[in-house]
Amino acid sequence: MIRDPLAALDKYFGFREFREGQEPVVSALLSGRDALVVMPTGGGKSLCYQLPALVMEGVTLVVSPLIALMKDQVDALQAKGIAAAVINSTQTLEEQRERLRQLRSGELKLVYVAPERFRAEGFRAALRDVEISLFAVDEAHCLSQWGHDFRPDYLRLEQTLEELGHPQTAAFTATATPHVRSDILKTLKLRDPFVSVTGFERPNLSLRVRQVESQKEKYERLIRVVGEWKTGIVYCATRKRVEEVAERLNETGVSVTAYHGGMDDRAREVAQNEFLSRASDVVVATNAFGMGIDRSDVRFVVHFEVPGSIEAYYQEAGRAGRDREPAVCELLFNFADTSTQEFFIEGNNPGPVLIRNVYSALLSHADDNHVVLSSIQDLADWAGARNSMAVGSAIATLTRARYLERFDVPGQRIRGTKLLRPEVSAFEIDLDEAALQAKEKADRNKLESIIRFCYDDRCRQQWILRYFGEPAPDVCGNCDMCLAESASSERAPTDEEAMVVRKALSGVARMSRRTAYGWEGRFGKGKIIQMLIGSRSSEILEKGLHELSTHGILKEAGQAYLYALFKEMEQAGLIRTEPGEYRLVTLTNLGVEAMRGAVDYRLAWPSVAVREKTRGTNGKGEAPKVSDLKDLGFDPVLFEKLKVKRAEIAAAEGGKPAYTVFGNQTLELLTRLQPTTMEAGLAVRGVGAAKAERYLAHFLEVILAHRKSAT
């Protein structure tokens, strides 16, 4: 067993340094502390518990809400040679028994479990015989009734932790207000926890709100965004709307996958795999889609209707641009759509009268064992309720108050309900009516907040950071409000501004290729900006970009300003983004002249101040220089050959998702750097020792054969 976390990071994950915010969390967990970690989507939360699991004795139990998400993470871990497994309701009883046997015998390092498994006394009893080194709760906001995605089964974790003697516990979430964080700490009884709140700022995201008057206008705008940005997610408020929007986009020739909670497990798994494998580049979905989706090249997220809260909006929007390249997040706002969210608020907040009526109906229909087997719709009919969603929420309230217990019925889609205190009448149940009212008020306040956000005329990013209690000293310069402000101030540059533009264009030139026909791009906007601000990330170092004369030349300008400036330079025709999957950036002829100071131009200058704090790396774990690794440029033919080889390997290993072998970013690096030895291949980001031992030789053979055929 590897005891050094950096060595384990390199061997199993192929990284030589941590991302921002990861190292303090890992260190805290390895020192034995409980933890609450709030880290934005794409920030690398899962590694914060996966890595300690590999270094610590015993097993790490991971509670995760989505079966598809658990399967994806376990597949990826197993591909790295890590002993991981999942226990969920899709498995046969024999499969579940085998996983429990492996768990008790110490054969597994990470075990993923859905929260509903803790309903079973037998499962909880089995865990008492297991050496649990870490109890990791993913999507921890689900246990807070103040959160945007409350799931009653998460409340069972409090009892489970007590029964297990309170093992070391860590909670992880992407979006949590101070109120939700407090609820998580209280419910899980975290002891002297290390609390980490990584910044919510996403400077590469252009947050936009489009006021629309009709469905026709919505579809026109949606089709335009999809046509421009190609790859992304369209979120709809209801299952019916998902089907309508997917059908409409398909009619326009866009290959679309639909995803919502009304589909069976198999259909949802197929839909998710289509998107992850890039068989489809656009998915239309309810908020059931997205947790743990490991696709970094999502270029847009569109909200077809207003979501119910800022928390939900920003978590879903944050699934765009995880590769740090520019992405757009557009909310199509019509106030009439808020009626859907009002319906959801009503459904999530049943009043005392309805709760007592539901309880009375259960008492009336229970058998001699105080058990009721019925659907939610049947219960709604018995209780005289119009909103079946509210009946489900009433049952959740009664379950939290320990009047009921819910259980699965083998072979049936309905769930059973057992009355725990049948001697108590409906009028005698003790309801905290003040808490019920406070919860409804909080939900309505959240809806009002997102409505205010849509109507506000201030910087979107700044507005959201302040909502989450984060400092927001500068406007982003990249949202619709900032761009609208700058659009009215198009002018010629000052001498200082002209010098900044010349330096930026010089950086683009250094990272482009000059041909007989002009300039060709080699890198995306994000990499160019990282080079200009002086980043020393492993990717920058491995490509030798730190040796360019322009490395760090605009360090003082900062990342947010440069993202906004690049957008304006492209609008003015100084640079261009080449069509294709990788959106490479290079100079135009006008840009060449501007770089030389030989032409006049006007820009809508970004309004953000030139003082953003540089976010460099700490320089730890720098990769050694490997002479084999010189960027030879992107070769699409070789890239396709490597993709074919990856598909062959994935098929040979039981049809696992291709990305679990190597992700597209790693394939691109292999294409550009063309290593021909194991030593050189190990220096490529994303190729760790475990994957190198298992797969790398196959890819080196393809590269060698390709290079030989090209000579």
The rough form would be described as: globular
Structural class: alpha/beta
Unreliable stretches? 608-628
Number of strands: 23
Can you walk through the features of this model?
This protein is an alpha/beta fold and 711 residues long. 45% of the residues lie in helices and 14% in strands. It folds into five domains: 5-197, Rossmann fold (3-Layer(aba) Sandwich); 205-333, Rossmann fold; 343-436, Arc Repressor Mutant, subunit A, CATH 1.10.10; 495-596, Orthogonal Bundle (Arc Repressor Mutant, subunit A), CATH 1.10.10.10; 636-709, DNA polymerase, domain 1 (Orthogonal Bundle). The strands form six sheets. It has a seven-stranded parallel β-sheet with strand order 3-4-2-5-6-1-7, with helices on both faces. The longest helix has 23 residues, at 433-455. The radius of gyration is 27 Å and the shape is globular. 45% of the residues are buried.
Task: Present the secondary structure layout.
Blueprint: H1 5-13, H2 22-30, E1 35-38, H3 45-55, E2 59-63, H4 67-79, E3 84-87, H5 93-105, E4 110-113, H6 121-127, E5 132-137, H7 156-163, E6 169-173, H8 178-188, E7 194-197, E8 205-211, H9 215-229, E9 232-235, H10 239-251, E10 256-259, H11 265-276, E11 282-285, E12 300-303, H12 310-317, E13 327-333, H13 338-348, H14 352-365, E14 371-373, H15 376-383, H16 388-400, E15 404-408, E16 415-419, H17 433-455, H18 460-467, H19 480-487, E17 490-491, H20 495-510, E18 512-515, E19 518-521, E20 523-524, H21 525-532, H22 538-542, H23 559-571, E21 575-577, E22 584-587, H24 589-595, E23 603-604, H25 636-652, H26 664-673, H27 678-682, H28 689-710
Parallel strand pairs: 1-6, 1-7, 2-4, 2-5, 3-4, 5-6, 8-13, 9-11, 9-12, 10-11, 12-13
Antiparallel strand pairs: 14-16, 15-16, 17-23, 18-19, 20-22, 21-22
